[in-house]
User: Which sequence fits this backbone?
């Protein structure tokens, strides 16, 4: 199944669902930051996410409990590939250099990255 890109609002709702594992619209709203969006707004976005193939639901009478069917890891992989391909010509080196130049990586993180690289070399 092809993963589609999420809008910022859709991604915010998915982050909540990935955290909760499942939830009714009211439970999703409870986890969103202030100011809380209207019930109908969140309900609409959840239905859009369902149409996009990100969530499904179990019906309990007229209430629906929603749950993710695309994992956070799967979407993270999709989004990272899109970022890498779209902005860094599929070069991890260019992406890493960008984050270093923007001071988004500190010495501790750089050291951890070097350890990961060493582990890859040992395989």
Assistant:
């Amino acid at each position: 199944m092809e993963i589609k890109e999420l809008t910022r609002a859709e991604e915010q709702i998915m982050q909540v669902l990935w955290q909760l594992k499942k939830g009714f619209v009211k439970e999703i709203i409870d986890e969103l930051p202030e100011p809380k969006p209207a019930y109908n707004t969140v309900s609409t976005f959840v239905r859009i996410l369902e149409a996009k193939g990100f969530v499904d639901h179990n019906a309990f009478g007229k209430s629906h409990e929603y749950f993710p069917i695309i994992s956070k890891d799967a979407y993270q992989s999709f989004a990272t590939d899109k970022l890498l391909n779209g902005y860094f010509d599929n070069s991890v080196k260019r992406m890493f250099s960008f984050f270093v130049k923007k001071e988004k990586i500190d010495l501790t993180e750089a050291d951890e990255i070097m350890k990961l690289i060493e582990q890859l070399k040992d395989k």
Notes: The mean pLDDT is 91. The two ends are 31 Å apart (CA to CA). Residues 72-122 form one domain.
